[in-house]
Amino acid sequence: MLKTVKDACEIHPMALDYAMTEQIENLSSVIDKTEKEAEIFFDQNFITKGMGILLGDGLKRLAGRSDQAVFELRQAMGGGKTHSMVALGLLAKSPKLRESVVPEMASSAPFGSGKVIAINGRLGFEEHFLWGEIAHQMDRASEFSKFWRDGAKAPSETDWINLIGDESTLILLDELPPYFDYAVTRQVGAGTLAQVTTYALSNLLTAATKLKRCCIVLSNLSGSYEGATRQLRQAIANFQQEANRQARSITPVELASDEIYEILRKRLFRRVSDRSVIDAVAASYSQALSEAARSKSVAKSAEQIADEIYRSYPFHNESYRQTRGLMQFISKMLRSTWERPQNDVYLIGCQHLNLNIQDVREEIKRISDIQDAIAHDIAANGEAVAEMVDANLSSDAGSQVATLC
Fold it and tell me: Which residues pair with 188 in a beta bridge?
């Protein structure tokens, strides 16, 4: 007998009520997480190809075995940039964790406990500026106080080299556009704090290339702040130009690949059914669609459809563009499926969204405000057009088709 997803899979307890705030990783957690919390982090996360490149090359740099010092993570919002930074930071701190999570990387890049500096540009650092925060986290604030005590002054390349030294040091720079947004409003001499910051960070990047065990990772600046002022756009462009000269670009998650399904399975499920169940589901769908494929009403062959099911199970193969809002959206699909009165879903898809559930409806509204269309055509507690079709058919086929459209 063919197993439904509810019978074949076990979801995480939080999967039915996944909040957007749970998806936004806090960079400070690199410093705060205990060893046990770090293990849970990796247990619940899939290492994508892009993240694997960052981890491998970043650890080699911290071990003094790579010439690449600076990495820029380029992706739209929700693409796993902060998540990848957190992963590298946790591994850099703990040799034990490296041996457990990435043993091959650990053996090719041996070093002890690295120093990890985590900078979130949204925090401001009003009193000692961004470079002062780096010095504070390195427990060497007194050596850098001259660069903020009497106003903002940019450390030189030599100052950075002397501060960081030969110790394995990872510096993570996230959310810099908000800091530049603040900095363009602060007057410093004849210029602005943004100009001082650009000079200070540019010197940091060049200093890192001369320190064998210093690694810097920054999240991308391009595409941020679409409505930015001319001054902010110029400040970001100036630093981006310097970063382009020094950094290797990495895309953490290939959103057009199967990686997104690996992430969904890892984050939202405790257990996904074994291969025999997936084989049975794939065979059943292939058989049902083979006639449609032969008549050209479906463009894909039965073999192609089966292959897609293997890769995307327990989901239908659909296009997803980002991971941040996606987790919350998929959570609503799971809730709709798990709360269905019938246990009849073999592959989860958008057609299973129950728009009569208030928070599911609100999630759709967050994406696109089509409330009038939903109420008239899809879901109105039995009064919508699709629900009337359901009543006549004694099934929810009308609602599924309308929801998918």
Answer: 191
Amino acid residing at 67: D
Query: Looking at the structure, do residues 289 and 235 belong to the same domain, yes or no?
Result: no
Q: Is residue 24 part of a domain?
A: no
Q: Are residues 231 and 265 in the same domain?
A: no
Token pair, residue 173, equals 């720079």
Number of separate domains in the chain: 2
Amino acid at 133: E
User: For 347, phi and psi rounded to 5 degrees?
Assistant: -140, 130
Alpha carbon 116 to its chain's center: 20
pTM recorded for the entire structure:
0.85
CA atoms within 13 A on the CB side of 318: 16
Distance between CA atoms of residues 321 and 276, nearest Å: 30
Q: How many CB atoms lie within 10 A of CB 257?
A: 13
Which is nearest to 74 in space by CA: 178, 223, 212?
223
Q: For the chain, what percent of residues have pLDDT higher than 70?
A: 86
Quickly tell me which residue has 């790579």 as its tokens.
66
Q: At what angle do helices 397-404 and 385-393 cross, to 10 degrees?
A: 150
What would the two tokens of residue 334 be?
A: 């799971």
Q: What is the pLDDT of residues 177-189, one digit of tens each?
A: 889 989 999 999 8
